[in-house]
Design a protein that fits this description.
Keywords: Elongation factor, Protein biosynthesis. This protein is an alpha/beta fold. The protein is 26% helix and 25% strand. The chain has one domain (13-211): Rossmann fold (3-Layer(aba) Sandwich), CATH 3.40.50. It has helices at 43-50, 60-74, 94-100, 138-146, 165-169, 185-195; strands at 13-18, 23-27, 33-34, 83-86, 105-108, 123-129, 149-158, 181-182, 197-203, 206-211. The mean pLDDT is 97.
Length: 212
Amino acid sequence: MMQTCPLCGSTDSVPYHRDARRDYLACRQCALVFVPSDQRLAPAQEKAVYDRHENSPDDPGYRRFLSRLFDPLRARLSPGARGLDFGAGPGPTLSVMFEEAGHPMAIYDPFYAPDRQVLETTYDFITATEVVEHLFTPGRELEGLAGRLVPGGWLGLMTKRVHSPEAFSGWHYILDPTHVCFFSETSFTWLGRYLDMSVHFPAGDVVLLQRR
């Protein structure tokens, strides 16, 4: 069956990897690696996985992990800049860190904070940490988030990146059944061109995109 790339919409994809549970296709246009739509979990199965997460703002280790995005993004923000944490999960923490730094925050999560009214306003910055790999339609979602940024606003994403088929085959990241989209630096460069945003890579699993 022909598969449409969930990032760019191209139907030009090729087999990239296969394991005992799933197939993985690579888009020839944007280089996204993705799981075919018929091999994704149902929403109830997804939530059952997320319910096992134990992230908390009281966990210093989790704060250190999030600081890989927090530090470079905060350095680029004006005092009092307003933000949205998209996909905050069951234990919102990054939003707490930004609020402690003087930045008013809203949160959204389809399972744990599903008030979509927060998606109808504009923000100086939007974050999504360990989120984009879970999205069934990342192209549509990321374009929508970019449209919620003021001119000059920042979109900060954290996700581990694809490097090669050889590394992918033994990668722990694909073992999580809720991970269905895998970005490379090429994928984010394509996204920046498509959204007319500048692209910055401050860390191996962080990308910052700025609206022009």
